[in-house]
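Q: I have two molecules that I believe assemble together. Could you output structure tokens for the complex as a whole instead of separate predictions?
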Amino acid sequence: MEHRTKLTVAYLGAGFSGWQLQGDVRTVQGALEDALARLVGGRRVAVVGAGRTDAGVHARAQTAHLDLPVAIPATVLPQVLNSGLAADLRVRKAVSVPSSFHARKCALGKHYAYRIRWREPDLPWQGLRTAVAPPPVELRALKDACIRLVGRRDWASFTVPEVAHRSTVRTVFRIEPVEGRDGMAFHFFGEGFLRYQVRRMIGALLEVGRGRMNVAELEHLLDRPSPGAPLPTAPARGLTLERVYYRSSPKIAS
Amino acid sequence: MEHRTKLTVAYLGAGFSGWQLQGDVRTVQGALEDALARLVGGRRVAVVGAGRTDAGVHARAQTAHLDLPVAIPATVLPQVLNSGLAADLRVRKAVSVPSSFHARKCALGKHYAYRIRWREPDLPWQGLRTAVAPPPVELRALKDACIRLVGRRDWASFTVPEVAHRSTVRTVFRIEPVEGRDGMAFHFFGEGFLRYQVRRMIGALLEVGRGRMNVAELEHLLDRPSPGAPLPTAPARGLTLERVYYRSSPKIAS
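A: Yes, here they are, computed for all two components at once.
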């Protein structure tokens, strides 16, 4: 009898080569599976994530499912797993779910945030989840451009050529730019995002904010999807997977 | 003509095997000297710290001096060095100083802070510079005990036996316990601290707060200094070197 369990995990990306299990490098999935193996006496327990975050990308609430081969109450799982994990990876929550639950296939939407500072932080613990984008950036133009990136579009220009054989059509529900004291945050809500999509959306928005791209050129990237379009990819350090939405989650406002 | 320069640096301790240069491991001094060597064309420039922080210990304003063999204005040094350093180590300030300045020998005092949370933080970026000390802890007893650790005393019981052949007498000017929402911070001001001294002072204070040691036993550790006294050493993760005081720094209130 296996016990399907849904995990909510948070991590600082700097110490991981991304989510997905890979040979000898440290990954989030690998660290979780190692901790689970120790817990269940060496048996391998696969952890299926809602999506793969790239190297250096953070998560406040990444979601995953697994099938526990032992009857450990889900409520104690965070504490038990956390005691065997490094401080940059935390299991925040574990709940029992029906065996029909699948972290990736059941996901209805995702919320990513991208954080920018205008200058390097003075203290190393201030900028761990923030990328630096030196001024000048025209904030009005940058914020106005956000609305152009909302809707059901073909995002091929915003991803990498390798994935171009799969469908690159996705719906972006909403983008919220929020001005802060030393920088800015962009909140992206969508049904799902392609590899590098958010970081290349930020790359494009900053090009607009710097006057190096105009709105017509931005529209062109969407109207004529072209894998490998010459767009800067913003650094992983600024990107955080904030939340994954499921049927039981509060509805995403659109 | 060499140019003596005083650096103020901040670092997150988790990624370093302490301050001091050692073989193949990553240390703060090593990272700074590597960055300087790249800057001055491969020549080794020694960086002399105000003190050695141990593996895992953080700094908000560690101080060091070095002799630059090239005429780079001190004001541009932080930006130039930071561009070659990882994000967990920042050069905050560089100023030209007389060649008589010595970061360790001229230091008049130090401020360390030790931060405690009562439970593991939910998010990995909340607890990077904080140790976890599970309740119950009697805060009144713990705060009252702080005053017992102030003054010019022999701290041999609070350090490791290896350093016991040197003088272990030091003056602690002041200890400030500050209660927070989820935990507590202790600010230690002193002329200097022995290896592990602050972490073992915290270890002792928590023993008092837990009712496992009384004030008489605490006094005994000071009255009869005994290297290797059975005291817990609080984890490095909670300790931050906040500041090093020199003649030109604002006076330490005592």
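A: One point stands out. The radius of gyration of chain A is 19 Å.
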